[in-house]
Automatic annotation (TrEMBL):
Protein name: hydroxymethylglutaryl-CoA reductase (NADPH)
Top-level taxonomic group: Bacteria
Keywords noted in UniProt: NADP, Oxidoreductase
Family of the protein in this entry: Belongs to the HMG-CoA reductase family.
Pfam families recorded: HMG-CoA_red, HMG-CoA_red_N
EC number: 1.1.1.34
Record keyword NADP present: yes
Gene3D superfamilies given in the database record: 3-hydroxy-3-methylglutaryl-coenzyme A Reductase, Chain A, domain 2 (3.90.770.10), Hydroxymethylglutaryl-CoA reductase, class I/II, NAD/NADP-binding domain (3.30.70.420)
Ranges where the Hydroxymethylglutaryl-CoA reductase-like domain occurs: 7-122
PROSITE patterns hit by this protein: HMG_COA_REDUCTASE_4 (PS50065)
Length: 514
């Protein structure tokens, strides 16, 4: 299996070359995929191969094996994100000068791999000044207690609540570093909400994690109103996750010719990208030329995962193949800020990032009068006036507060909350029907959600997803439809409150705690 050199070098943990009592050590971290380290062929230091009897490998705190023993036993597991420490019996001094480290080994399923990196030898004393960590078991009780004590002594405080939790820290690998405890956010429920989606069908009671008074009550009121008129229709209309590298050339013509080559070799680029994952599917590559820069926007389907890390790894592999096979590239960056990861942007409103989903409903006039004490034409007129305000402010949302419900659902269900920056974009539309009722719809063009991977598998987060039958594979479209429907309920509730001048009185009644 071909692994680009740029990707191979990521196995080495830069800054890990440390002087020890018996020589030096450095760390390797598997950033590719689950593998078996079959044979360590050689390690070189400044071009000189280190004798095998002077090399040992540590895969855990109580596991240290010589290279000869490793090779004789047929190898050892090297799982994704696992760290192994390589010890070399070499008398080297601490120095800021870069040293060359070469590594050659065979691993299944990759075959023979070889790469060279540069790093300088540092003192172990430098690490003692940092937050306590354990390279081989950073989620064990002992190291967690050490960090808690370190934090308490550093801040001269006490962890009375943070250190109490019901989750298994060992299951947090890949979710958080330097773990010391949890932040507890209150969870309320709203609903049931009737949804007529292609994936979400029926009644749903949704968990909302928030500390904002009136939020749950407001969304619950909107759901009650929507149910009276038949509920919400929800539809996922597009799906894409991006990574956007930039390639730099000597002139604009070189950038233009490169894009032509990329289009001609899209099949091979797709093969390299998809070799890193059984889930990621490269659908197409947009290109944008400016000055002497070629911006490529790789678009993927990522299954039930949000997929930012997945597409980053896939695009890195594809770009490694490009760099190895195209001459004339003067520089390259894996992300050019053109995917606008965790930032609101016009391109993601137009082109989709995550799931593009619409929720819509027609609300009867009598129901608006009964529940909200407001006429449909009041809300419709208010929406058109607010549209002018949206235009003047340059905001990315023509509605009122869809990020409120989205954020509350994200926290409850283990989504990456920073993705609210992109998921905050929304296009709200309303019109009066011939019968005097109110049609409303909201389109969220860049809703980034997951039902598998990331933080969705942790304790309370998984539990909340399971309670709405949205945990696991083949559930992400269902979840997206529910989120959009909930957002619509919040929009109609707040729009009614503002249009009827009921907004401030509601906060006075429900939203004050002092």
């Amino acid at each position: 299996m071909f692994v680009p050199s740029i990707l191979l070098k990521q196995l080495y943990t830069h800054g890990s070359l440390t002087k020890t009592d018996n020589g030096v050590s450095f760390a390797l971290k598997n950033r590719l995929k689950d593998a078996t380290l079959k044979e360590l062929k050689w390690i070189s230091f400044d071009g000189e191969k280190v004798p095998s009897h002077k090399i040992s490998i540590q895969s855990s705190n109580d596991s240290d094996i010589s290279v000869d023993a490793l090779n004789d036993t047929g190898g050892m597991p090297f799982s994704l994100r696992q760290v192994i420490t390589v010890h070399l019996e070499l008398n080297e001094e601490v120095s800021p000068e870069k040293r060359k480290i070469g590594i050659c080994f065979s691993a299944s399923p990759f075959g023979k791999l070889k790469f060279e990196v540069e790093d300088n030898v540092t003192s172990p004393a430098n690490r003692k000044l940092h937050i306590p960590r354990d390279d081989h078991d950073d989620y064990g009780d002992d190291i967690i207690k050490k960090r808690q004590s370190y934090f308490e002594s550093f801040t001269d405080g006490k962890l009375n609540h943070v250190g109490k939790y019901s989750i298994d820290p060992d299951k947090l690998k890949g979710n958080i570093e330097h773990f010391i405890g949890v932040a507890q956010v209150p969870i309320g429920i709203a609903g049931p909400l009737v949804i007529d989606g292609e994936h979400a069908k029926g009644e749903f009671v949704v968990p909302l994690a928030t500390t904002e008074g009136t939020l749950v009550a407001s969304y619950n009121r909107g759901m009650k109103l929507l149910n009276m008129s038949g509920g919400v229709k929800a539809t996922v209309v597009d799906d894409a996750m991006q990574r956007a590298p930039v390639f730099i050339f000597s002139d604009a013509r070189g950038a233009r010719d490169f894009v032509t080559w990329v289009n001609q070799n899209i099949s091979k680029i797709r093969e390299e990208a998809e070799s890193t994952s059984s889930i990621a599917k490269l659908t197409y590559i947009d290109h944008f030329l400016s000055n002497k820069f070629a911006f490529l926007r790789f678009n993927y389907l990522t299954g039930d995962a949000a997929g930012q890390n997945m597409v980053g790894r896939a695009t890195f592999a594809a770009c490694g193949w490009i760099l190895d096979n195209y001459e004339g590239i003067e520089n390259f960056y894996l992300e050019s800020n053109f995917a606008t990861d965790k930032k609101a942007s016009q391109i993601n409103i137009m082109r989709t990032r995550g799931k593009r989903v619409t929720a819509e409903a027609t609300i009867k006039r009598e129901h608006l009068l009964q529940i909200m004490r407001v006429e449909p034409k009041q809300i419709d007129y208010h929406g058109r006036v607010a549209g002018v305000g949206s235009f003047l402010s340059g905001v990315n949302n023509t509605g009122l507060h869809s990020p409120n419900g989205i954020t509350a659902m994200f926290i409850a269900t283990g989504q990456d909350v920073a993705n609210v920056a992109e998921s905050s974009a929304a296009i709200m539309y309303s019109e009066l029907t011939d019968d005097g009722d109110l049609y409303v719809s909201i389109t969220i063009p860049s809703l980034i959600v997951a039902t598998y991977g990331g933080g969705t598998g942790m304790g309370t987060q998984r539990e909340c997803l399971e309670l709405i039958d949205c945990y696991g594979k083949n559930k992400v479209y269902k979840f997206a439809e529910i989120v959009a429907a909930v957002a619509l309920a919040g929009e109609i509730s707040l729009a009614s409150a503002i249009s009827s001048s009921d907004w401030v009185s509601s906060h006075e009644q429900y939203g004050r705690n002092r």
